[in-house]
Automatic annotation (TrEMBL):
It comes from Streptomyces antimycoticus. This is TetR family transcriptional regulator. InterPro entries: Homeodomain-like_sf, HTH_TetR, Tet_transcr_reg_TetR-rel_C_sf. Residues 6-66 form the HTH tetR-type domain. PANTHER family: HTH-TYPE TRANSCRIPTIONAL REGULATOR YJDC (PTHR47506:SF1), TRANSCRIPTIONAL REGULATORY PROTEIN (PTHR47506). It holds the Pfam family TetR_N.
């Protein structure tokens, strides 16, 4: 029976995650969360705690699913940071195109509501954005470009990712999203090539 309960808890958490993802924290009412999970308010509190605790658990669940995919993509091409960034964006575009999940990104959706989040929740969202930055920065580390340039490129890649989430929620066509990604990858490649050659010339 414990295995059955664990399955039910995970399924309920996935459903709650979708509510936060689709509606955002502010508009994810307890009634909507209870309806999506199939739990009454009492059971919802008993299983997950209050809304803020449930929200943070949903963020963790989101990262365990999608963050792991990003990490694998970024680590799949050691020595080739440009290809790693391309693979990262491939995963993002696949998530955006998936008809079985809400549009956009739960982290981006939550970041846009940072001013309305409680301090602990806001810090959680900022921490997840920082984590994404660190992952991208690690993938760029194989380049011999100046470290400051790599830091700036990592920030740029994360910014493009968040922009894709916002654009997808606004109904931007896939072709346009892919155009954004192509230009972003070209920017990364050109910047790395230019700064690497400049460094070699100075050396």
């Amino acid at each position: 029976m414990s295995g059955r309960k664990q399955f039910d808890v995970e399924r309920a958490l996935d459903q709650a995650m979708r509510v936060f993802w689709q509606r955002g924290y502010a508009d994810a009412s307890l009634d909507a969360l209870a309806s999506a999970t199939g739990l009454g308010r009492g059971s919802l509190y008993g299983t997950f705690g209050n809304k803020d605790t449930l929200f943070r658990q949903c963020l963790d669940r989101y990262v365990s699913i999608y963050g792991a995919r990003y990490e694998r993509a970024l680590a799949a091409y050691p020595g080739d940071p440009v290809r790693a960034v391309e693979a990262f964006f491939d995963v993002i575009l696949a998530r955006i195109a998936d008809p079985d999940v809400p549009t956009g990104c739960l982290i981006a959706q939550s970041a846009t509501q940072s001013l309305t989040l409680k301090e602990e929740n806001g810090a959680k969202v900022r921490g997840l954005l920082d984590l994404q930055h660190r992952r991208v920065r690690e993938a760029l580390a194989d380049s011999s470009a100046d470290p400051q340039v790599l830091d700036e490129l990592a920030t740029y890649v994360v910014a493009v990712n968040q922009s894709l989430a916002v654009l997808s929620r606004a109904g931007t066509p896939d072709a346009q999203l892919r155009s954004v990604v192509r230009l972003a990858c070209t920017t990364v490649a050109d910047t790395l090539a230019r700064t690497t050659s400049e460094g070699a010339a100075r050396g």
